[in-house]
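Lecture 7 notes: from sequence to structure.
We start with the chain below.
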Amino acid sequence: MSVRIGTRGSALALTQTQQTAELLSAVGGFATELVRIKTEGDVRTGSLAQLGGTGVFVAALREALLADRCDVAIHSLKDLPTAGTPGLALGAIPRRADARDVLCARDGLTLAQLPAGAQVGTGSPRRAAQLRAARPDLEVVDIRGNVDTRLGRVPGLPGNAADAPGDLDAVVLAAAGLERLGRTAVVSEYFEPDVMLPAPGQGALAVECRVEDAPLRENGVPVAGAVQGVLAQALAAIDDADTRLAVGAERALLARLEAGCAAPVGAFARRKGSLLYLTAVVCSVDGAKSLRVERATDGLTEVGAHLLGIELAEELLAQGAADFADLGSGEGYEA
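Predicted structure tokens for the same chain:
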């Protein structure tokens, strides 16, 4: 058998899809074929925060799944709307890569070393707000483009093309994407969560499939001994339980906040021993106001993780997060 895997056509999407395809093939013993799908987010120009709607990088891949043009689709989990699509299931969430954001600056500068007035590029309102909160004297520039295009805006970074514009002092990107592309040499600083909380789901991949091909689960845990197809067995084998718990909590928080694409919301969950911790922040766009909260639960189940996310969201709302952030306007996504 051969499994058709839907993917966007960017270098990063193709790389992370190929890596996931190799995992599936290794455990399932089947061949794989990549099917490139062009999404709305690949076609439309302008600021991502202004595109509107939900899942601009996802809808076309989901349509291809439902139309049987591919068997699974690989998404960056942070792009995936929290609302599901009838007929589709989240078949696997492989082990999460580094969830942190990173600074890629000229001359190896850190955030503290950038001079006043330095221009820092990002397409993410979440990153922009936290940058402004940490360094209000910087000029944050809204940018689009793939990883190479963004890195090309910073002069002197390893691997940049000779004709790259080099018109910014730094850009902020996700560590996971640079790691998958083999470009971590451009990183001048890794941001710890106390400086910049990542987007919900950042660093994780989502393997979406049709419901009939999904592993049988009870409360998020694969059913032992269940009779399932080869694809379902392979999806269950590459799923990482701790990652599923963590991103489940983060996405439950995002769903309860109903954060619009212009709302700077960061969240990061991690399991430590018998507890699952979740930290979240909501900022005003200008970074002048923010609320940051943290909770933990010993309910290490899918339901327990979701309840943790909802409880933390309720705490943020009770403390007035909606008064300064664009909440309650639908689901978001970020660059």
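Points to note: The radius of gyration is 20 Å. DSSP finds nine helices and 15 strands in the chain.
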